[in-house]
Amino acid sequence: MAVKIALAGNPNSGKTTLFNNLTGSSQYVGNWPGVTVEKKEGRVKGTKDIIIQDLPGIYSLSPYTLEEVVTRNYLINERPDAILNIVDASNIERNLYLTTQLMELGLPVVIALNMMDIVRKNGDIINVKKLSEAIGCPIIEASALKGYGSKEAAEKAAELAAKGQKSKPRHQFSDRVEDALNSIERLIGGKVEASLLRWYAIKLFERDQRVMEKLGLNSGMAESIEKIISACEASLDDDSESIITNERYIYIGKVIESCYRKKNKSHITVSDKIDKIVTNRYLAFPIFAAVMFLVYYLSISTIGSWATDWVNDTLFGEIISPAVSGFLVSINCAPWLISLVADGIVGGVGAVLGFLPQMLVLFFFLSILEDCGYMARIAFIMDRIFRKFGLSGKSFIPMLIATGCGVPGIMASRTVENESDRKITIMTTTFMPCGAKLPIIALIAGALFSGSVWVAPAAYFTGIAAIILSGIILKKMKAFAGEASPFVMELPPYHMPSPKNVLLHMWDRGKSFIKKAGTIILLASVLIWFLSNLSWSFQMVEDADESILASLGGFLAPVFAPLGWGDWKSTVAVFTGLVAKENVVSTFGVLYGFSEIAENGAEIWPVLQAVYTPLAAFSFLIFNLLCAPCFAAIGAIRREMGSARWTWIAVGYQTGLAYAVSLCIYQIGMLVTKNSFVIGTLAAFGVILLIVYMLLRPASKTGKDAVRVLDSLKI
User: Fold this and answer.
1) Which residues constitute the domain of residue 214?
2) C-alpha angle 254/257/260, rounded to 5°?
3) Residue 276 lies in a domain
4) Are both 236 and 133 inside the same structural domain?
């Protein structure tokens, strides 16, 4: 029977790196039942019977966040065979707080003392043997980044699990607190299993509402426990939760004092020196802008572009498409079937996969920024800006995640405690260009702007600008009014990115894109081919303008005419993008016969140049970046909002803003470049005036008053 080991630790303790070291490619990623928190599981390499369950990174087992609730429920209800606790040795005091709680769960516990290489580099000394005796569980020195200690720690946990050797907490609270806990233990002795008795007693002492509800205490017992707690609070002149927190830190302080020797307490670390520059009040944002410009420049205009050109021109244009067409002709396939496979399937899917190299390059660089510790700084930097507009820097974390995919970005909004801030975050997160939108950016940049380096960064910062403007506008409305939630975030020390972690992150993000190409985009490409080659009488047509798709697109095309691209093909591409944003490119691939043109090189660009002006193309690009996201992301919005009404509000706001911005870009652009003043120009000026009014108008007093009332009531 397999041994299941729970991997628990603080955020930024190296837990993900250690998990990757242990499991390699044998990972299974899903969601915890009923929630959108990611669930990771995998077998330890070289073993068949050791399964690692990676729990969300948390600071404690108090149920303040969804991650803490998920972790606690798993440890209490599922009862893994052992716990492998990842402790950051360079931040040992903070990390041991969770350790003291894990030791109370009546399970075998092994500590992987991670980042010992940093401790040694700093000249600090940790007496591991003494620390192990003080805490009451085995401790294995490790460095997940350097690749040592991880497997030894997992094997030690499996060994304890096999022996049934449960860990017992060594820490004792003050006599007054211990008396109160013993009294509570006597009251609930028959209601909980013996191994969890102390943990339940502590949680009841802290007035943990979830535990109280779970135990179903009668009024008499609840009253008795309350009297015990109140007497202790009166004696120590503090609330019960603060008492326990203080007691834990007193114990941790004594342990560290006896086991930890810091070489130079006033030593300024390399991370501190770097942060003086990259988080500087004046330099932080320019550096961030320069970093993101470089990332998109390398991804779109240089390395990624070279690889994409080869895939489009050589792989699909000269090898795959001719080979497929030649094979079908050789076996005497019907012309319509050849067209379906070559133009519909190869053309549609190939048009999207052609941009895979650019996406992988982008994901590669983003993974490096994430792994080295800079991404956490970006959230800190953006907090200064966001707070001025009524949002917390925590709102930027989901937006960073959304650069890979909008779905996990939306799900990450659960880290924002304030409900109104969370709704704004959900409504604006998808303004960030995700991986699925990258092919659209690359296509427009290459076809209409000769691969100019400014197009991709402009798209990125347009998303940020839309978020900031939306934050100001929405925060002034009654439904979203209130103070921004406080921003507290640990900044991990800088370190060299792990090549293995970077490549795994890159592959995880790219894999979903490839899956879409083989499923959703394939089906959409086939459907588009049929609709563009059949009339309403279901007869094959030679001219796509006479097809079902043309009539449907033509009916809606006038709506987008003021934006500069009111043709039926562009209209169809926008709507197919709701299925998956990559479909915008694959739709063009099918409608413009990408596969046949690609045989002579990337000649889809001249085709698009004949349809679009640069101004119209940029308007088209911005609309697709800001409008309603794909169906998967809309589904995530529905789950997170918990309301169909709020989902429609979010989708309506996104689409409305996209239309307004694109209208202003095209109409004002035409006025400046062509001296063209039409009714659309007047509408654009009207939109600008409305936006300015929404930005400058006073905030809703009702909303602010409501927030004050809630605060006063401690709700």
Assistant:
1) 175-261
2) 130
3) no
4) no
